[in-house]
Amino acid sequence: FWGSKVVQDIPVDEVFQYVNDIALIRGQWRVVRGKLSEQEYQRILKAQIYPEYEELKKSVKAENLLEPKVVYGYFPCRSDGDDLVIYRPSSIPQLQEWLRFSFPRQQDGRRLCISDFFAPVDSGRTDVVGFHLVTVGMKASQYSKKLFEANNYKDYLYFHGLSVESAEGLAELWHKRIREELGISAKDGKEIRKLFSQTYQGSRYSFGYPACPNLEDQAKLFELLKPERIGVSLTEEFQLDPEQSTSAIIVHHPEARYFNVKLHKSITPTIQ
User: Fold this and answer.
1) Residue 134: Cβ-neighbour burial (10 angstroms; 0-12, 13-18, 19+)
2) What is the pLDDT of residues 213-256, one digit of tens each?
3) pTM of this prediction?
4) How far apart are CA 187 and CA 149, in angstroms?
């Protein structure tokens, strides 16, 4: 389909399957090995951390603290130098420009830019780009705030960490759905854990990260997807509210991988 769709009533258990427990436990909860042996560290994880994790998930489900929602869509597009031109879906086949994203280009190496991964305007072809915005809801932010203000710091750390990683898990889940709809999921890793290391075709680039660092582009994404429909708004600093939300541009090109850009410089693309 062209345009956007809202998806609600997503099972929390399905989202939990896509939570990166390493990022959760080591990154969010700060349970790191330190000077412990690997055997001692694994013993603590099995005896204490994993049981607490399972109990937390049960509690979150019982109290309906996470409300996973998604808005996503597909739009006709073409590249124009460093720009990605988005056309109004209603204008097919006589394409009418809607808006454009200007991405930075690497100064060295492969000299990549996100726009390189789409058919150029002079090719005569129309390409497709996906966008999505996912959230686990305002209730998660409110509950996190309640725990923090009550000085219940361990429960705050655990719940807040799980809610943030659940939003990331939902983004991973929905990126997989998009690959399925685009017909490129055959290259997906057979295990969910392998998806965390980008074992699939294409890439999911989030605004604010090196390849697309301009947070102001969130405003353009809001124009495309209208995520107010799932309770997400944009702050004056172009941050998503509630915090437990994330957005991305979905690129299907088989050579699309994460890359860093230090400074913007206009250089001829290397991908044909």
Assistant:
1) buried
2) 999 999 999 999 999 999 999 999 999 999 999 999 999 999 99
3) 0.90
4) 46
Spell out where 92-196 has E strands.
97-102, 127-135
Cβ atoms of 179 and 202 within 8 Å: the answer is: yes
Distance CA 124, CA 244 (A): 40
Mean pLDDT over all residues of the chain?
Answer: 92
- Residue with structure tokens 């057979």? 190
Pick out the chain residues at pLDDT < 50: 264-269, 272
Distance CA(182)–CA(127), nearest Å, equals 12
Determine the Cα–Cα distance for residues 43 and 41; give it in Å rounded to an integer.
Answer: 5
Compute the distance between CA of residue 217 and CA of residue 114 in angstroms, rounded to an integer.
14
Q: Are 74 and 1 contacting, i.e. CB atoms less than 8 angstroms apart?
A: yes
Phi and psi at 128, nearest 5°, equal -130, 140
Give me the pLDDT at residue 187, please. 87
